[in-house]
TrEMBL record:
Localisation: Membrane
Lineage: Bacteria, Pseudomonadati, Bacteroidota, Flavobacteriia, Flavobacteriales
Organism expressing this protein natively: Fluviicola chungangensis
Keyword annotations: Membrane, Transmembrane, Transmembrane helix
Protein's UniProt name: EamA family transporter
Annotated TM spans: 7-25, 45-63, 72-93, 99-121, 130-148, 154-176, 188-207, 219-240, 252-271, 277-294
Gene Ontology cellular component annotations, sorted alphabetically: membrane
Coarse class of the protein's main subcellular location: membrane
InterPro entries cross-referenced by the UniProt entry: AA-Vitamin_Transporters, EamA_dom, EmrE-like
Amino acid sequence: MSKDLRSWLILFVLALIWGASFILMKRGMYDETGGHIFSDSQVGALRMAIAGLVMLPFGLMNLRKIKNGKQVLFLLIVGTCGNFLPAFLFTFAETNLSSGLAGMLNSFTPFFTLILGFLFFKQKIRLKQVVGLFVAFTGICILVGILNNEPVKISLLHVGAILLATVMYATSLNTIKYKLSGFKSLEIASLSFSFLSVPAWIVMLSLDTGNVLQTNKHAFEALGYISILSVFGTCLALLLFNRIIALKSPMFASSVTYMIPIVAVILGVFWNHERFHVSQFLGMVVIVGGVYLVNSKQKEVKS
């Protein structure tokens, strides 16, 4: 199988996994009737704690791969920006936003990947890509109702949380490609999680998560969804994501966010019974068009 075909297949699988992750986050926080189970912070902490526990044995085996303090710093950046903080930001955002809309907003990852690549990694930006940035920004305005005659009531704070998470994803993407290219996918994932596993467990225990398990009858069902989210939506997804970066480029890897909104919206409507607004569809189309322009003809850096 050619490298290009392998890359596209991994990208498609990753879109399915991450598209479903937005629903799993919701199911960790609310039951089918909309009743509260775990708080957004508890879901984020549980997700990271479980993922850290799963990856810790692999991380301990790969410790010898680290040669200097700079590599530790870059692995901490990947773990913190690529997983730890976004886990809390996305669950916080989904207390106000639908799963579909959260998936759409995640499409801004290529937007920031390009900007950070230009500012810090000497990547060139073409005129078509600049146009794409403005098109994508128009799409985000439509999504939050600014350009819609009947605006959807959406909190800009929660929208901002996802945009901040996409900036962090972009930081992690560029760091993996340009600072950790000598590491394999499993090594990056396991080491970055291992460094953050102890803080994740401390945060999880400090949030009185155990009390929810004892008092809420839906807690163990929700924990099951969070566990699936941790193992597949975090651990496995990170391995696949790191592999795409190694095979292609940060911009290509970030293009998975083109497909995530479609998966998230479909699952949100049919599984979580979320409403679908015309403005969301229009915003998704505009964003996808914008980020496509941003990513078109991007010169890939060979590893």
